Amino acid sequence: MGNIIFIGMPSAGKSTVGVVLAKRLGLQFIDADIVIQEKEGKLLKEIILEKGTDGFLELEDRINSSIEADHAVISPGGSIVYCKNAMRHYKEIGTVVYLKVSYDIINQRLKNSKDRGVVLRQGQTFRSLYDERIRLFEKYADVTVCEDGLNLEETVGKIMEILPETVKYYR
Length: 171
Known about the structure:
With 171 residues, the protein is of the alpha/beta class. 54% of the residues lie in helices and 14% in strands. The relative contact order is 0.21.
């Protein structure tokens, strides 16, 4: 199944880059966080408050594991790398692209992690979350694209260069 799945930190640009790439290639775009919100009828931050971190991750795993798509760009939330079933599913249905952004840039972009529905455990700092997730992003990535110093168009162009066979398949 020819899907492109973006992983990375919140504010790495998974949705923004995903929408532009999908438009450019004529693909469907799926924002998995929106799918979760629609199915639950609540914002991510409300779901996290209600279910707690573990409950949210179980829900995220279940919903992402059930996303069926072909010829789509899929943007799951940054915590998807904690969801083994969902990551196995995504690896089976497409190419997983890690949008890598340095801590300083992510921290600058992400002013309030609680409003974004970022999954932080009790007492966890954003820096420790970043360091923890980096290892998981690298583990699951088929391809890594470093966005540091790139604008949106340059990032999309780099992805299209790195995935020439996949991109050619869509044209």
